[in-house]
Amino acid sequence: MFGGGVLKGLTVTLKEMIRPKVTTRYPDETYTFPNRFRGIQKLYPEKCIVCNQCAMVCPTQCITIRGKPHPDPAKKGKVLETFEIHFDTCILCDLCTEVCPTEAIVMTNQFELAEYTRDALQKDMTWLTENPAEAREVNLPWRKT
């Protein structure tokens, strides 16, 4: 029959027109992301032991971490001096948070990083610490929900 394919296409189109819409009006309505969503990172510098595992496992080498000896000579280990992430090259792969033994760096549900220049996407330790986003529940085993 001539036009059978057109009729099938029109039936699919008509079915989709009467289905309820699933899009959200983003700036006005916030979308609830799943718990395993990989947003930007949050840093807890008091937990960091400066093991450099996050920087070594990063596939894009966007993490820079430096430590200094502990100011108290009685304590062993290092204290975090600088921690930077270059979000212009970060692919938010979650490898840095998975490898961290003390969970000093965790993923959040925040994803908005719009900037006008690439230099503004280089975030330092203070920005990562003061990041107002809530960390995902998957990365917070110490918090009981």
Automatic annotation (TrEMBL):
<feature type="binding site">
    <location>
        <position position="48"/>
    </location>
    <ligand>
        <name>[4Fe-4S] cluster 1</name>
    </ligand>
</feature>
<keyword id="KW-0874">Quinone</keyword>
<dbReference type="GO" id="GO:0051539">
    <property type="term" value="F:4 iron, 4 sulfur cluster binding"/>
</dbReference>
<keyword id="KW-0004">4Fe-4S</keyword>
<dbReference type="GO" id="GO:0009060">
    <property type="term" value="P:aerobic respiration"/>
</dbReference>
<keyword id="KW-1278">Translocase</keyword>
<comment type="similarity">
    <text>Belongs to the complex I 23 kDa subunit family.</text>
</comment>
<protein>
    <recommendedName>
        <fullName>NADH-quinone oxidoreductase subunit I</fullName>
        <ecNumber>7.1.1.-</ecNumber>
    </recommendedName>
</protein>
<dbReference type="InterPro" id="IPR017900">
    <property type="entry name" value="4Fe4S_Fe_S_CS"/>
</dbReference>
<keyword id="KW-0479">Metal-binding</keyword>
<keyword id="KW-1003">Cell membrane</keyword>
<dbReference type="Pfam" id="PF12838">
    <property type="entry name" value="Fer4_7"/>
</dbReference>
<feature type="binding site">
    <location>
        <position position="96"/>
    </location>
    <ligand>
        <name>[4Fe-4S] cluster 2</name>
    </ligand>
</feature>
<comment type="function">
    <text>NDH-1 shuttles electrons from NADH, via FMN and iron-sulfur (Fe-S) centers, to quinones in the respiratory chain. The immediate electron acceptor for the enzyme in this species is believed to be ubiquinone. Couples the redox reaction to proton translocation (for every two electrons transferred, four hydrogen ions are translocated across the cytoplasmic membrane), and thus conserves the redox energy in a proton gradient.</text>
</comment>
<feature type="binding site">
    <location>
        <position position="51"/>
    </location>
    <ligand>
        <name>[4Fe-4S] cluster 1</name>
    </ligand>
</feature>
<feature type="binding site">
    <location>
        <position position="54"/>
    </location>
    <ligand>
        <name>[4Fe-4S] cluster 1</name>
    </ligand>
</feature>
<feature type="domain" description="4Fe-4S ferredoxin-type">
    <location>
        <begin position="39"/>
        <end position="68"/>
    </location>
</feature>
<keyword id="KW-0472">Membrane</keyword>
<dbReference type="InterPro" id="IPR017896">
    <property type="entry name" value="4Fe4S_Fe-S-bd"/>
</dbReference>
<dbReference type="GO" id="GO:0005886">
    <property type="term" value="C:plasma membrane"/>
</dbReference>
<dbReference type="GO" id="GO:0048038">
    <property type="term" value="F:quinone binding"/>
</dbReference>
<feature type="binding site">
    <location>
        <position position="93"/>
    </location>
    <ligand>
        <name>[4Fe-4S] cluster 2</name>
    </ligand>
</feature>
<keyword id="KW-0520">NAD</keyword>
<feature type="binding site">
    <location>
        <position position="58"/>
    </location>
    <ligand>
        <name>[4Fe-4S] cluster 2</name>
    </ligand>
</feature>
<dbReference type="InterPro" id="IPR010226">
    <property type="entry name" value="NADH_quinone_OxRdtase_chainI"/>
</dbReference>
<feature type="binding site">
    <location>
        <position position="90"/>
    </location>
    <ligand>
        <name>[4Fe-4S] cluster 2</name>
    </ligand>
</feature>
<feature type="binding site">
    <location>
        <position position="100"/>
    </location>
    <ligand>
        <name>[4Fe-4S] cluster 1</name>
    </ligand>
</feature>
<dbReference type="GO" id="GO:0050136">
    <property type="term" value="F:NADH dehydrogenase (quinone) (non-electrogenic) activity"/>
</dbReference>
<keyword id="KW-0411">Iron-sulfur</keyword>
<keyword id="KW-0408">Iron</keyword>
<dbReference type="GO" id="GO:0005506">
    <property type="term" value="F:iron ion binding"/>
</dbReference>
<keyword id="KW-0830">Ubiquinone</keyword>
<feature type="domain" description="4Fe-4S ferredoxin-type">
    <location>
        <begin position="81"/>
        <end position="110"/>
    </location>
</feature>
<comment type="subunit">
    <text>NDH-1 is composed of 14 different subunits. Subunits NuoA, H, J, K, L, M, N constitute the membrane sector of the complex.</text>
</comment>
